[in-house]
Design a protein that fits this description.
The chain is of the alpha/beta class. It has 9 helices and 14 strands. Helix 6 runs antiparallel to helix 7 and helix 8 packs across helix 9. The structure holds zinc ion (2 copies).
Length: about 290
């Protein structure tokens, strides 16, 4: 029987801003061993899930890698929309400490509407829809093992790479991180590595265009993300079967095309390569023709 485990990139843009021509910020949809897992909830996650043909009421688990807004700005709206679409059971959420404050704050900000819909439409209790757990080294997900590794994304310290090992496939998600040698052993032999990537020349161009940031933005980007060329080296060292790029910095700059990303990664990696696009679904075990 053909394996149907897939990882869909719902949004591939690094950073929270969107502009005409850009992709959406970060979220992913993992379907593994019959489970439906959302990883990160940047802007566009709700639409992205539906565009994969998955009902919001079918989500089994949500994992948030770190508390930068491009990874969780839409978490509350995702729950609210799932609620109005019929969600009436609890979804576990695994994320860094502090996520419970966001959840409380989101509900406070929407209290009028939430209370109204419970009273006026008979909707179930909203607060109970999310069961928030602080991320640990390992989580047993009933047939899937989630292993986490603190990655390198200063100034944030509660920030994680994720590895999901199912009965038939494995996938590693780098999260937001500077180059770290530990990523290769962490991703060893995975069926798919999804790694964030940046092009240094593109960062300079991006920062030159900024109208409301200063040199600290440039410093932040360069010290907390990974050069595309290094991503190729990590994939090679890890011996992964497939590599996908996401969290592109820059994104939507016509001066930096797929050819630039491809050339950077190909310095070290000659295996299967996916340059992520919003909505791109990748089979964890490629189907043989
Ligand atoms: Zn990010
Ligand atoms: Zn980040």
């Amino acid at each position: 029987m053909t394996n149907t485990d897939t990882l869909a990139l719902l949004g591939v843009k690094g950073g929270p801003a969107i502009r005409p021509g850009s992709h959406m910020p970060i979220s992913m949809l993992l379907r593994m061993a019959g489970k439906t897992i959302v990883v990160d909830a940047g802007l566009g996650v709700t639409r992205g899930i539906c565009d994969q043909g998955v009902a919001l009421t079918d989500i089994d688990l949500i994992v948030i890698t770190h508390l930068h807004s491009d990874h969780y700005l839409e978490l509350g709206p995702l729950f609210h929309t799932a609620w109005t679409a019929g969600l009436n059971r609890t979804i576990p959420v695994i994320g860094p400490k502090g996520l419970d404050s966001y959840w409380a704050g989101f509900q406070a900000s929407m209290a009028f509407d939430i209370n109204l819909r419970m009273a006026d439409e008979g909707r179930c209790d909203f607060n109970g829809l999310a069961d928030i757990h602080v991320i640990t080294d390992q989580h047993d997900l009933d047939g899937i093992t989630l292993t986490t590794m603190r990655n390198l994304h200063p100034p944030i310290t509660d920030t994680y790479a994720l590895r999901f090992d199912g009965p038939e496939s494995s996938v590693v998600l780098s999260g937001d991180t500077a180059y770290m040698p530990e990523m290769a052993p962490f991703a060893q032999n995975a069926d798919l590595l999804v790694h964030e990537a940046m092009l240094r020349d593109g960062v300079e161009a991006l920062c030159a265009r900024m109208t409301n940031g200063d040199d600290r933005l440039r410093t932040h980007i360069l010290r907390s993300h990974t050069d595309a060329a290094d991503v190729g080296q990590i994939a090679k060292d890890a011996g992964v079967k497939q590599l996908a790029l996401n969290h592109f910095v820059p994104d939507g700059d016509p001066d930096f095309t797929d050819a630039h990303w491809d050339a950077a990664v190909r310095q070290h990696w000659d295996g299967p390569l996916f340059l992520g696009k919003d909505g791109m679904a990748i089979n964890l075990i490629p189907t043989t023709p």
